[in-house]
Amino acid sequence: MSKPVMRIGQRAIGADHPPYVIAELSANHNGDLAAALHLLEAARQAGADAVKLQTYTADTITIDHDSPEFRIRGGLWDGNTLYRLYQQAYTPWEWHPALFARAAELGLTMFSSPFDPTAVDFLERLAAPAYKIASFELVDLPLIRRVAATGKPMILSTGMADLPEVAAAVAAAEEGGCRELALLHCVSGYPTPHEECNLRAIDTLANAFPRAVIGLSDHTLETTVPVAAVALGAAIIEKHFTNCRADGGPDAAFSLEPDELAAMCRGCRVAWSALGAGGWELKPSEAGNRIFRRSLYVVADMAEGERFTPENVRSIRPAHGLPPAELPRILGRRARRAIARGTPLRQDLVEEL
């Protein structure tokens, strides 16, 4: 069975293509359009393929309510209500045209996570080339069907979901009209301890959903986990990034700075290029070294008719003589003629029985 491939813009994405790196802008602009535009430039310089936004307002994602169930306890956003957090974190919709335009100038693909149908309609007017469904929205099957109806490629994050919930989301996307789908393994911990990453779930998703491209949405504080994910088959890597963690912001604590994002991009692509095809063909870098493997050599001067023994023939480097596997057959036979020390042992030097 052929490996699944999806396209976002002109870029083919799949296991047989270099990893597709998505830099998640999220709330790391801190309400400053100039900072957001600078982040686009930093993402391009770091080597990201795409920058992703989140398209919502506090009113489209929740309601302004102060009851306990609307209040966050613990973690980075402790004490906030959902409404206040999203008021602080959202990317103003009036910025979107400028961000899309600047991304295009930089050669970056830009798309977004919509959080309600009005966001889908808005992003369609901006000709978004793809859509991402956030982990927390994976259970919103009507939203998934609405996004799927656009016919655009879709990426679904699977944080907190069990396999039946992922299957239901995939079914909703396919029933809604999606023909190009990716699933990102994700742990929705902010930040995620590396020992909780469960990267073997990448293979679980690939086996359970063979028509989907598989990737990772990572919230660790490092670059090692995404590189390992690529080695395990992830074709997409999504990572939050910021100009400077010290600047603060809702998502800064689990975001990479530009030099770290660049190191991650390089590491992921090196890991992918190192995978190879799995065959045993001799590689160009090693071809010249075959001659330095072991073979049989005469290691002491021998007279004609003298028997070969462990004292006068050994397996040593280089590889100009008979293979070492021939040694048991050679021992006890006689030399056809005098042989000088350092001569590679060839069949014509060995007397036949």
Structure in a nutshell:
By secondary structure, the protein is an alpha/beta fold.
Taken in chain order, the helices and strands follow as: EEEHEHHHEHEHEHEHEHEHHEEH
Structure annotation, total helices: 12
Helical residue percent band: 25-40%
- Range of strand content: 15-25%
**At the first level of CATH, what is the class of the largest domain?**
Alpha Beta
CATH hierarchy: architecture of the largest domain: Alpha-Beta Barrel
The helix-and-strand class reads alpha/beta
Number of strands: 12
Query: Quick one: overall form?
Result: elongated
Topology:
Elements: E1 5-8, E2 11-14, E3 20-24, H1 33-46, E4 50-55, H2 58-61, H3 82-89, H4 96-106, E5 109-114, H5 117-125, E6 131-133, H6 141-148, E7 154-157, H7 163-176, E8 181-186, H8 201-208, E9 213-218, H9 224-231, E10 236-240, H10 258-275, H11 284-287, E11 295-298, E12 313-316, H12 327-330
Parallel strand pairs: 3-4, 3-10, 4-5, 6-7, 7-8, 8-9, 9-10
Antiparallel strand pairs: 1-2, 11-12
